[in-house]
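User: I'm new to structure prediction. If I give you an amino acid sequence, what do you actually give back? Let's try with this one:
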Amino acid sequence: WNVYGNFHRNLNEVTKLAEGVDQIDIETAFSTAGSFAIVGQPYGSFFGTSWFRDDAGRLIIDPDGLPIENPASTFVGNPYPDYQIGLGTVLSYKGVSVRALFDMTQGLEAWCGTCGRLNLLGRSEESEARDRTYLIEGVIQTGSDPVTGAPISDGTANDIEIGARDYFTFYKGDLGALEEQMYDASWIRLRELGISYQYNLPKKVKTLSAIDFSFTARNVFLITDYPGVDPENSLTGAGSNIGGFDWFNMPNSRSFNFGVRLHLN
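Assistant: Good question. You get back a string of structure tokens that encode the predicted 3D arrangement of the chain. For your 265 residues, that looks like this:
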């Protein structure tokens, strides 16, 4: 019985850019979602629009019942994991061999543009309840900051209900702040599961010494809270060093393979 594994952790930070350069746009996938190199942040961090909040972190709600969007681009997520773990095992006995390979990636974030657009179109499971009103948790705007013009609140809880159209268009849909489409994309995947058997033929068989039978399943199951297509892939593809863009990507496929191998004398 063999067990093997690995642990990977890569922390990075942009420490300096060219003189006079505040930021470098690495991957402008969309006008509202992009990855940037900005001093003090991880390389490739997500920057985009967010919601205005009070000092307690509560959403500030306008008189129409919707949260107020901050048009300035701010840090909203890091597409790189805190750590990655791979774990494999092979158990062999009397010609039978069973193997499994697990992958774990934790602490990364992804932009689920797919989720926002499906909410906007009313095609997601989340947007099925369209015959009711919604109340967004937060505090009512009671004024504006005299210096910055940002909305402020005296802490009065929001009690303004809105219809499903506005809720799934301007809050949960992709016409709202980019922040709302950022999700934890941590996952655990059974990457491969296989079993094989080697049958040794009698010595009187002159042409063959053994026959191997094998079955392998790949991408067997995935454990994740990420609601999008697949937390592992990205719209920008294998040629890009930036991940985390989810816009109707193709998910990883599951495959099942059967094999027979002949050992010739």
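You can read the tokens as a compact description of the fold. Here is one thing that stands out. The CA atoms of residues 200 and 243 lie 47 Å apart.
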